[in-house]
């Protein structure tokens, strides 16, 4: 019983951490290929330049609260963004939810490997997609 509680508490901590990491990787994959800084300018809408406020930066929740649109210009935000954020959180939290308190190191390593694998896989797919879209560069 205590094990289950311990696993759930750990997972409840890792889920938002994984979602925040996913949100960061989203920025990395969006900005690095364009040669932009990861730190400046702060997160903003690509269409209207609206700078995102703290409550617009909460992974998954902000997307749902804004019904998937920019608060300033109403431009739709890709559905993939909250899905990847949720997947990232789940990837980090699921191994811990299953066995974290009995095998903390294995659970953390598995979670990190899953999280990184998701983003490497997505990065490769995205790169392929963009090189096809731009007609082989
Ligand atoms: Zn906007």
Written account of the structure:
The chain is mainly α and 137 residues long. It has one domain. The chain is 62% helix and 0% strand. The protein contains four helices and no strands. Helix 3 packs antiparallel against helix 4. The N and C termini lie far apart (57 Å). The model has no long low-confidence stretch (mean pLDDT 92). Bound molecules: zinc ion.
**Beta strands, count:** 0
Runs in which pLDDT lies below 50 for 5 or more consecutive residues are none
Strand content: under 5%
| Helix-and-strand structural type | mainly alpha
Order of helices and strands: HHHH
| Domain module tally | 1
Tally of DSSP helical segments? 4
Q: Main sheet, how many strands, which sense, barrel?
A: none
Distance between the termini: 57 Å
Mean pLDDT: 92
Helix content: 55-70%
Q: Can you list the ligands bound to this structure?
A: zinc ion
Radius of gyration: 17 Å
Coarse shape? globular
Task: Give the helices and strands, then pairings.
Elements: H1 2-31, H2 61-65, H3 80-99, H4 104-133
Helix pairs in contact: 1-3, 3-4
The structure holds zinc ion.
Residues 45, 47-48, 50, 70, 72-73, 75 line the site of zinc ion.
Please provide a brief summary of the model:
With 137 residues, the protein is mostly helical. Helix content is 62%, strand content 0%. The chain contains four helices and no strands.
